[in-house]
Amino acid sequence: MADKFFIRTFGCQMNEHDSEKVKGVLLDMGLEEAESEKEADLILLNTCAVREKPVHKVYSELGRFKRMGDKVIGVLGCVAQKEGKRIIERMPHVDFVIGPRNIYRIKEAFERAREGKKSVFTDQSSRCAVTDLSFPIARENPYRAYITIMEGCDNFCSYCIVPFVRGREVSRPPEDILEEVKILSDAGYKEITLLGQNVNSYGKGLDKKVDFADLLHMVHEVEGIEWIRFITSHPKDFSDRLIEAVMTLPKICEYIHLPAQSGSNRILELMNRKYTKERYLEIVEKIRSYGKYVAFTSDLIVGFPTETEEDFQETLDLIKKVEYEGIFAFVYNPREFTRAYNWEDDVPMEEKKRRLSELLKVQDEITQKLSKSYEGKVVDVLFDREESGWLVGRTRTFKIVKTRADKSRLGHIVKVKITEAKMYELKGEIVEGDV
Ligand code: SF4
Fold first, then answer.
1. Domains of the chain: residue spans and CATH
2. 61 alpha carbon to ligand 1 midpoint, in Å?
3. Is the Cβ–Cβ distance between 43 and 74 less than 8 Å?
4. What is the pLDDT of residues 201-228, one digit of tens each?
5. What distances in angstroms separate CA 277 from CA 99, 206, 239, 252, 317, one per listed residue?
6. Closest ligand 1 atom to the C-alpha of 272?
7. What order do you get walking across the sheet with 144-148 strand by strand?
8. Is the backbone peptide bond immediately before 232 cis, with ω within 30 degrees of 0?
9. Which end of the chain is more exposed for a tag (fewer CB within 10 A), N or C?
10. What pTM, to 2 d.p., does this model score?
11. Distance from C-alpha of 395 to C-alpha of 410, rounded to nearest angstrom
12. Ligand 1 pocket residue status of 160, Cβ below 6 Å
């Protein structure tokens, strides 16, 4: 009987997509996917190190696996890169540790584990797995796909561990990306999301002079792909040329995740973000000046070292001005290796939590109001899954929409009249056939 594997993924879309790549290799090796950890011979945790809590969770999960008998245990992702061999020292029942740049070595690590050998693959200079088109990828969804266009980050925001665990920026050549987009189009995919830690600085270090706006134009030419998204954008690299491409190419969806992190210029400088609140709002204004509704989302941190009530009020002001459809907000916690790690974490936790709950309260009202504004409108929806008798999809603005319809609509872009709007989910009725 074939060995079975089970992967648990934490963190961002980059991790989700890395898990699809690892899964592709394991299936290619003849392994089968298990329904649960219990029935798996190989358990993998694909981890996130951006915040402290998930790192502790990885260790507690690994402790739990110890009691599950004779299984191969592997740790992937950013915690693997950050902790390296410390994981095996603390948890000797772990068989291998693989950082994000080394996931293509999963086969080797599993085979070594079967021979009773431990492996730690965390060489940051390793070739980036994504540059290899023969790398099998087992995508979770048959209609919408992630495509990595660059890896790593050179920005060194003072609170962020990513440059230390995902390495320096490496862009994938445009020809490779285009070839992958064409393969996906031929396979029937309708939507692609171009992935990278900072997609706006795409092209750095490539022989050919090409930037993200050029790449969007090239990808836009591929027939069959109807919707294009990208994540994550850095405001400092959102040039006018890029705004023009995003706002004028019809396949690009009206959804931009544009992390602001703070609304206070003093804090933004301490964070090494390299833009001001005014510049951020100017980008939003320029995008809106094209006259189309665009949904913005953001990442925000409260309680950064030295953040005062006044600084926090600036952040509240920013979210009110932008009117995000949603935010991912967190209290600051120091991360090893980063510049801010050595600074006094001087905002008391109680105060951080108070600011976070105030921020979320204000944001909830905005999200509620914007959700309500969908009621009665007809929107395009790409239905991509079925869930308890509902067809579920997303609008171009990335809102979840549910409807009662038959499965033949799956994988199609359909016009839906929104009849009911909850905070994070819309319900509606199909009003006509495919677009
Ligand atoms: S841009 Fe800043 S926050 Fe984003 S991954 Fe790079 S260092 Fe981290």
1. 4-121 (3.40.50.12160), 129-372 (3.80.30.20), 378-434 (2.40.50.140)
2. 27
3. yes
4. 999 989 889 999 999 999 999 999 999 9
5. 35, 31, 16, 26, 10
6. 2
7. 144-148, 191-195, 227-231
8. yes
9. N
10. 0.92
11. 14
12. yes
